[in-house]
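Work Package 3 (structural annotation) set out to generate three-dimensional models for the target panel prioritized at the project kickoff. During this period the team completed the workflow that converts sequence records into discrete structure tokens, so that structures can be stored uniformly alongside our sequence database. As a representative example, we reproduce one entry of 433 residues exactly as it appears in the project archive.
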Amino acid sequence: MGLLFACGLLVFYAAFMRRRPASSYPLITLLWWQYLALGGSAALIALSGVLQPVYAPNYLAALFLLTCVAISALGFRDFRSHDVAQLIGRISGQRAIENVLICSQLLAIGFFAPFAIDSLTGDVHQNRLLLDDKMEVMGSYGLINTAAGAATQLFSSSLVMAFIRLAPRQGRQRSVARAVVLVLSSLSYVVYILAYVGRDGVVYWLMTAAMVLAVFWIHLTRADRMRIVGAGALISALLLVPFLAITIARFLDTEHGAAWSFLEYFGAQIHHFSDYSSIDRPLTLGVLNFPMFIGVACSTAGLQCESWPDIKELIFSLYLAQDKEPWLFGTFVSDFVADFGYLGAFVLVCGLALLSHRLCTGYRRQGRLTLARLLLILFVFLIPFWGVFYFRFSIANGFIVVNLLFIGLVALLQKWGPAGSSASSAKAPRSLA
């Protein structure tokens, strides 16, 4: 199935991407390479025979997954990184936005750092098993814990603002110091996830940093590119230390050891999706992936709706009765199918693709790309990009709410705030080839 998936993506490239330079259309390119690597990893797993699927390969499921991924990618086909130059030096309240992100995220690092250190001290696996006790302690801080957690969810915005500071070649709009502080502030998300003995924060931070770098690549000088790649390699090496510590602690004593867990982490999704498509999956109708919104809708309508904690044990038992663990990665498409079935998932994927296309093209008739629109485009892009594992936004939906509120506030500031300091006097910087 992995080879089928990869071959389908090669056909997709020939049909939709062959004549488009990767540097100018970074989002669809990044998504394509990521899922091509997933197909290759799945093929390697199949050839190794180490990780066996529970059921016979379901090739129709693989084709459905491929179709949904292709549709999602097409939504970003017309995003042009050259247009990013339209907002550089033209951002109302840029410094205020940066200050909010820096202050809130540095405070979040200060709050979560002791918990993260405690998570990595001693028996990491045992620390994970005792997570409920730690969560109770963090929860005892009330609004401080809530505010700190919310601040970390904006780490992608900090990375975007950092690169906006690096893009100008000269002048007061360029500030390497502020860019560095913004990048360091964005690491609050990693510290936040480590506090819960989680390794996902490392993965998602690195993925998001790669995404933002790809978007701004042509706007950076060659010297800046070299410095960023070098700094990125150093940060990656440092972040891999806690990632490896947690991975080894969790999987060292498993049947195939910690090494194979890396391959299962990125590669087994296609096989898991095939297995899930071969069993009778009970539909959860949005409770799994959109619990906050379903709860609000039910409360508004005066309905008594079951929450995910209410039905979790029953749903899990139905999966396990069919010899399939329900918590395995199957991509964001698998999570959508679990909630709404194949037709519902297909409609949702198509709707997100249409929204993405509109966001990536609609501004060309109305004027120029704005910071709020760029942040919204990248936010929607994270659904299939992070979704190579699972629908990451499903965890309490806090990431969705916090980011949309922040983007809305940025949009209001752009509309009603003072004009950008260089909007009237400075031209947007030229893109570099």
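Residues 331-361 form the longest helix (31 residues).
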